[in-house]
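>> Question from a student workshop board

For tomorrow's exercise we were told to take the sequence and the ligand below, predict the bound structure, and bring the output to class. My setup keeps failing. Could a helper post the expected result so I can at least see what it should look like? The ligand is adenosine monophosphate.
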Amino acid sequence: MSSNEAKGYNKKSVTDIDVNGKKVLLRCDFNVPIDKETGKIRDEGRVIAALPTINYLLEHNAAIIACSHFGRPKGEYKPEFSLAIVAECLSKHLNKPVKMAKDVIGEDAIRLASELKPGEIMLLENTRFHKEEEANDPAFAKKLADMADVFVSDAFGSVHRAHASTEGVSHYLPAVSGFLLKKELDYIGGAISDPKRPLVAILGGAKVSDKLAVISNLLKIADAIIIGGGMAYTFFKAEGGKIGNSLCEDNELESVLKCKEEAKTRGVKLLLPVDSIAGSEFSNDVEPLTVDSNSIPDGMMAMDIGPKAISEFAAEIKNAATIVWNGPMGVFEFSKFAEGTRAIAEAVANSNAISIIGGGDSAAAVRKFGVADKITHISTGGGASLEFMEGKVLPGIACLLDA
Ligand code: AMP
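>> Workshop helper replied:
Here is what the output should look like for this input. Compare the format with yours to find the bug.
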C-alpha cells in the first residue's frame, strides 16, 4: 500500500468508472475573472482547463450536466452572476452547443437535464444563486443529484469547502474525480504523503498566522523549510532581532519560537533570510537598502530577501528532489523588491526536482517571471492547496470513492 492510499488520497477518477450512456453531474471551477469595463471574460484559463474532462466524457458517450459557482451572489439570482457568459465561451472551445439552463434546480434545469442525450452538454445556473449551496443543504444537494447518475468533481479550488455541489451530492451519487482534480491529488497528495527526498518546502507571503498550520504539518514531512516574505520578520523579532517597521505579528512570537524548537527536535532544516532589502516606506519609490535581517534600521521596512539569502535558498533548492512552494519572498509587485521572488522562481524552475506551486501569488510569480512551463505542477486552488498541505481532510476529496 502506498502512502497516498494510507492517507486517503487514492481516489477513483473518471477513467475508473463506466460513463457510457450516463448522465454526469460535473462540478467545474467556472469562477472566471470578468473585465469590469467590457463585461467579458478576462482570462478563459479556467474554462480551457475544464476541457480534457469534458471532452473525455463526451467522447465516452456521457451526457454532461455541468455546474459551478461564480462570484458571490449571496444566495439569490443576480443577472451579473449568470453563467450564460461561460456557456458561450465553453461552446466556442468545444465547437458544439452548450445548453444553458435558466435556473439551478428549477423546472428549466430539470427539463433540460431529462431531455439531454449522450454526447450533449448543458450548464446549470450559478449554484450560489441558492443559499442552500454554501449551507450544504441535503434537500438542495438531492435535487442536484437527482438529475444525474454519477458525480464527477473537477473543481479543486472548491474541495476545501463542504458545499452542496462539492460534497453534498456525493451522498446521493457515486463520486469520482475529473482529470484536473486527479492531477492535484497525485502531485500535492504525493508530495505530502510519499515525497521523493529531500523535500524542500518554501513558504512566504505576508502573514505568518496564515501559514503556521502548514509549517506545523510540513515540519513532520519536509527535510528543509525555507521561510521568506513578510512572515519571516516575526521569527527575527521573536529571537530578539531588530526589525524596524517590517511586518510582524506580535501575538505569534511564541508560536514561531515553537516552530523553531520543533524543527530542531525533528532535525528539519529551517532557513530564514539572513539579509533583506529594505525601504523607508511601503512603496516602489524608495531607495532599496541591503540590511541584515536581524538588525533592520529604525524606520526601515524589509520588503524582499537579500543576496546572501537568495544564494543560501538557491543552494538548498538545487539539492531538492521535491519542492513545494507557497507565497512570495517579498513584495514582488514592486520592481525594486521583486528580485528575491524572481531568483527563487528561477531556482525552482531550473532544479531537477518535482516542483509544485500552491496557487495564488506564487503561481502569479512564476507566470510573471516566465518560468511557469518549467514547473511540474501549478495548483489551480490557492486556499485548497494550502489546506491540503496543512494535512486537513478536505471534504470534496474525502467524499470521492476510494480507488
Ligand atoms: P499572502 O497572501 O500571505 O501569501 O501574501 C502575499 C503578499 O505578501 C504579496 O502581495 C506580497 O506583496 C506580500 N509580501 C511579501 N513579502 C512582504 C514583505 N516583506 N512586506 C510586506 N508585504 C510582503
